[in-house]
Amino acid sequence: MLRRMDAYISVIAPKYQLPPQLVSAIVLKESGGDRFAMRVEPAYPYLWDVARNQPYKVSTSVAADRNPAPLFNAPRGHSIRTEWIGQQTSWGLMQIMGAVARELGFTGFFPALCDPMTGLDYGCRHLAALIKRFSATHGLRGAVAAYNAGSPRYQGTAGRFENQDYVDAVERLGGFKGL
User: Fold this and answer.
1) Distances from the Cα of 42 to the Cα of 22, 63, 65, 84, 152, angstroms
2) Please, how many CA atoms are within 13 Å of residue 146, restricted to the half-sphere of its CB?
3) Across the strands, what pairs with 97?
4) CATH code for 2-172?
5) Which candidate, 158, 124, 125, 131, places its Cα nearest to that of 145?
6) What is the secondary structure of 71-133 as a DSSP string?
7) Phi, psi angle pair for 97, to nearest 5°
8) What per-residue confidence (pLDDT) applies to 52?
9) Which of 12, 47, 110, 117 could bond to 86 as cystine, CB 3.0-4.6 Å?
10) If DSSP codes are grouped into helix, strand and coil, which group holds residue 46?
């Protein structure tokens, strides 16, 4: 399975000018290489308004409610409740959040993000955008911290990311080797 995963990564990572070893390390940390990995993250407040193509802002308490908030939309052919939960679920090899995939233009049914090429494409697209946004001010490790936490947030003045354990795990898996 890992050889097959590396073959998928070798096709998708260069498309976004990403180091394959970084993508591979994130895959191993996020899903252990399980293409069918998924995890519902109740209270995930970053949702996407598919009708208006913009963030759908809710509090974490509203997000934690299993019932969709008023005026929440779903793409045609998708139920609103499934969309609500699907956007709060991480999918596939890179555990791309459904809401982030929607923001990046994904219009399909969420389980399609478990297809290795599809999930890697959206995960790499997201990682490349984070690197572009954060690497100048926070370095590559900051962009990786943002992949896991939404932004590179520091822990006090110690110079450590709030999710430093995640960044360290990606490093142990060879993600920054030679970079």
Assistant:
1) 28, 7, 8, 10, 22
2) 20
3) 90
4) 1.10.530
5) 131
6) T----TTS-HHHHHHHHTEEETTTTEEHHHHHHTT--S-GGGGGSHHHHHHHHHHHHHHHHHH
7) -70, 140
8) 95
9) 110
10) strand
The answer to pTM > 0.85 is yes
CB 16 within 8 A of CB 128: yes
Cα angle, residue 123 at apex, residues 7 and 146 outer, rounded to 5°: 130
Residues 24-81 pLDDT 10s: 999 999 999 999 999 999 999 999 999 999 999 999 999 998 899 989 999 999 999 9
Instruction: Determine the pLDDT at residue 17.
Output: 98
Q: What is the pLDDT of residue 2?
A: 63
What type of residue sits at position 161? F
Amino acid at 33: G
Six-digit token string for 83:
């969309």
| φ/ψ of residue 139, rounded to 5 | 75, 175
Q: Are the CB atoms for 24 and 9 separated by under 8 Å?
A: yes
The span from the CA of 7 to the CA of 156, in Å, is 40
Is 70 exceeded by the pLDDT of residue 1? no
pLDDT value, residue 159: 81
Residues contacting 176, CB < 8 A, separation 6+: 22, 25, 140, 141, 170
Q: What is the mean pLDDT of residues 100-128?
A: 98
